[in-house]
Design a protein that fits this description.
0% strand, rod-shaped
Length: 145
């Protein structure tokens, strides 16, 4: 029969893999989101320049805001998994040092994403930099047309 600490170790190891897979999923989603945002923005700007109706730039701005919000929201979810992954890593590190898992450690404990503070600005600059850059370029193009 396995020791309790071995069972906890196996659960933590599995949860570590699951949390990393979720983080990878959100990273891929973020990359895809940025690609779509830039593609649509370039198409709209190109069309605006071609037909000389500068008010269409506002459609590009709306696209950037929509994709930026979606990307930012996914970053919040990814951070929840990262926080849990870090907790598991500390528990596993302690296990390798002491050959025992603390009774305070429980698994599985996947994030519930209950922190829905939409006004949080923790990652605005990190996530928003490409979108902010394109918004500034939109304003420049608006005044150049």
């Amino acid at each position: 029969m396995e020791k309790t600490s071995d069972i906890k170790y196996d659960l933590l190891k599995t949860e570590l893999l699951l949390t990393q897979q979720q983080m990878d999923k959100y990273d891929q989603l973020s990359s895809t989101t940025k690609t779509w945002a830039v593609t649509l923005w370039v198409a709209i700007i190109g069309w605006t320049v071609q037909i000389h109706i500068r008010e269409l730039i506002w459609v590009g701005v709306v696209v950037l805001i929509f994709f930026g919000f979606f990307d930012w929201n996914n970053k919040r979810f990814r951070q929840d998994y990262k926080d849990r992954r870090n907790e598991i890593a500390k528990a596993l590190e302690s296990y390798f040092k002491t050959d025992k898992i603390s009774d305070l450690v429980s698994s599985p404990q996947l994030p519930s994403h209950e922190n829905n503070n939409l006004l949080s600005t923790k990652y605005i600059v990190h996530i928003g930099l490409p979108y902010i850059t394109l918004l500034i370029l939109s304003v420049v193009v608006y005044f150049l047309i």
